[in-house]
Amino acid sequence: MDGFNRRWRAYALAGTLAGFSLAGSAWAEPAPPFAQLLRQTGDSPRIAVLNAEIAQAEGLAEQARARPNPTITVYGENFGGTSPYGGFGRTETTLQYNQPFELGGKRSARMAAGRAGVTAAEARGLAGRQAYAYELARAYAAAEIADRRIGLAEDEVEEATADLKVARALVGAGKEARLRQLQAETELNTLTAELEGVKAGRTAAFARLSALAGVEMPYTSLSASLLDRLAAQPASGPIDPLQSAGFRAAEAEREAASRRVTVERKRAIPDVTAQIGVRRLEADNATALVAGVSLPLHIFDRNKGNIAAAQAELRGAEARAASARLEALAGVQSGQALVAAADRRAQAAARTMATAEETYRLARIAYEAGKSPLIELLAARHGLGVARGVVLDAAAARLDARASLARLSGLTITGEPVQ
User: Fold this and answer.
1) Which residue of 290, 295, 348, 395 is most buried, as measured by CB atoms within 10 A?
2) How far, in whole angstroms, is CA 359 from its chain's centroid?
3) Helix 45-64 vs helix 106-172: crossing angle, to nearest 10
4) In the beta sheet, which residues pair with residue 286?
5) What is the spatial distance between Cα 220 and Cα 371, in angstroms, rounded to a whole number?
6) What is the C-alpha separation between 120 and 117, in angstroms, rounded?
7) Measured distance CA(131)–CA(249) in Å, rounded
8) Fold assignment, 28-67+102-268+303-329
């Protein structure tokens, strides 16, 4: 039987034309095809967070280039005391310029750490965008599957209603006991209740898709099928696990942590402050230059705590990079195996459904002819419903497998590179 497919196509067509907003004042827009939807999500909250993190790292890198600010000091001596310093006649007023000089390559270390921070933020951003594309694909597919589950449930209700009519006719003709009619009514009521649950699941799936896409008015339909596009086996080449965004982000984090260790170590080196100024000697009606150099004594604070913290951060980053490397290697191997298994599962599910449809068709013919009991028809219809669910589950598993492998390849599930 192809009733399920016909109903799905009719339902999808109606869904693209129907649906009101929550306020009921405007028609709800259908979600565009997945590739177009992904391109339109540049201002979604998830992407905005990633862009903000990159901008933050760029700001910190710019700040790392700054040199220490000078200070101007004005102070007076020898006034307001006892004789002969009771007035201002012997006042010595000094205007002094103080310029700190960083020693030991502090500024260059900060700048290198800032650049490494930007690189790490960009790598995290790319990994985040790939993860977002993966989640959006799953949400899009979940909405489509929820749509199809409604078609499946409506088909089962329609078929159960038809079976109930046959049962009533046979009971009225005295060919079946009334118990069979009650069994058919119970089955119909159960399927009707399940249909309401499926509708609620569809609402939740579209709400999730809309939230990920960053739109306030929830989508109520899809304008294109993502599952059908994946029906054919895509051509895929070899995947280098060490080029995956997750591993490269972990490596960039490790490099940035290493640069921060260098910064903290150099921060322990004392800085020199040069001083030069002009002093006015009121008593002699003269002016003189003053100059000096100050050097802090690192007796109590040698920045040991910050150095130890940075070294611990580096060890953690190295461990995460090693873990990311192993996960990337395992992800590629398992991803390719899961894709192959999901394709075989989808093919087997299609064969199962064809068998279940034929079984139900023959069971219904036999029951209408009075050659088999109602229990066999109910069992055949239940088997058909299970087979339809297996087909949808197989389609969902195939999408998950291909989306995971595409994420490791740096691509969207439809084959476009993630930038």
Assistant:
1) 395
2) 44
3) 170
4) 281
5) 45
6) 5
7) 13
8) Outer membrane efflux proteins (OEP) (1.20.1600)
* CA R_g for the chain: 37
pTM across the whole model: 0.78
Whether omega before 84 lies within 30 degrees of 0, making that bond cis, reads yes
Return the domain boundaries, the chain. 28-67+102-268+303-329
The H helix count followed by the E strand count for the chain is 8, 4
Burial annotation 9-22 (CB, 10 A radius, 16+ → b, else e) = eebbeebbeebeee
Q: Please tell me the distance from the alpha carbon of residue 127 to that of residue 50, in angstroms, as a whole number.
A: 10
Note whether 152 and 387 are within 8 A (CB). Answer: no
- What is the spatial distance between Cα 18 and Cα 338, in angstroms, rounded to a whole number? 37
Q: Which two tokens stand for residue 402?
A: 């291909």
Element spanning 170, H or E: helix 106-172
Question: Cβ neighbours of residue 262 under 8 Å, at least 6 residues apart?
Answer: 109, 112, 113
The DSSP secondary structure of 281-296, one letter per residue, reads ETTTTEEEEEEEEE--
Using CA atoms of 51, 53, 59, 65 in order, give the dihedral in degrees to the nearest 10.
-120
Phi and psi, residue 77, nearest 5°: -135, 160
Strand partners, 98: 71, 275
Question: In terms of C-beta density within 10 A (0-12 exposed, 13-18 middle, 19 or more buried), how is residue 382 classed?
Answer: middle
Q: 158 φ, ψ to 5°?
A: -65, -45
Taking the C-alpha atoms of residue 200 and residue 222, their distance in angstroms, rounded to an integer, is 17
pLDDT in tens, the chain (419 residues): 444 444 444 444 444 433 333 333 344 688 899 888 988 888 888 899 999 999 999 999 999 999 999 999 998 888 877 777 777 778 889 999 999 999 999 999 999 999 999 999 999 999 999 999 999 999 999 999 988 888 888 877 887 787 778 777 767 776 666 776 777 778 788 888 888 888 898 899 999 999 899 888 889 889 888 888 776 555 456 788 888 899 999 999 999 999 999 999 999 999 999 999 999 888 888 999 999 999 988 888 899 999 999 999 999 999 999 999 999 999 888 888 888 898 888 889 989 989 998 998 898 888 778 787 777 877 887 888 888 888 888 888 888 888 888 888 888 888 888 87
Helix axes 374-409, 106-172, angle to 10 degrees: 170
